[in-house]
Amino acid sequence: RGKMIEVPVGEEVLGRIFNVVGESIDNLEPLKPSLTWSIHRKAPSFEQQSTKTEMFETGIKVIDLLAPYSKGGKVGLFGGAGVGKTVIIMELIHNVAYKHNGYSVFAGVGERTREGNDLYFEMKEGGVLDKVALCYGQMNEPPGARNR
């Protein structure tokens, strides 16, 4: 019997690109992670979670005013081609890195290879690559892989 899919975690994943099963796909030297976590983990207990609701200040005025994000929450960004999703994502990642001294995980579900490549080099050029881990389930992969 096989084991659960485990992905590398920790600072060593920052600046790297992974597929949906946690394998690096950025053609850099192979990652030898000191720590991996299963993708199927129990949620934190209620005692471990904060009940305090706090707004996450994105630095993008229209989002902070009209559709504020909750600190510690998850956000999905949906829209058609060419509407500026990548621009907003880049700005959010930049603000998390520099205004909040934090880290981001970008999950590109159904991304085209070219779009993923462009985003990687934009982040590298913008100086935020060392503050983000990228995970792609690309269009050329089966739907089950993109759904992980």
Automatic annotation (TrEMBL):
Main location: membrane
Keyword terms of this UniProt record: ATP synthesis, ATP-binding, CF(1), Ion transport, Membrane, Nucleotide-binding, Translocase, Transport
Domain of life: Bacteria
A Gene Ontology cellular-component term: proton-transporting ATP synthase complex
Domain ATPase F1/V1/A1 complex alpha/beta subunit nucleotide-binding stretches: 59-146
Example of a GO MF term: ATP binding
Family named by the database record: Belongs to the ATPase alpha/beta chains family.
UniProt-recorded name of the protein: AtpD
Organism: Helicobacter pylori (Campylobacter pylori)
Gene that produces this protein: atpD
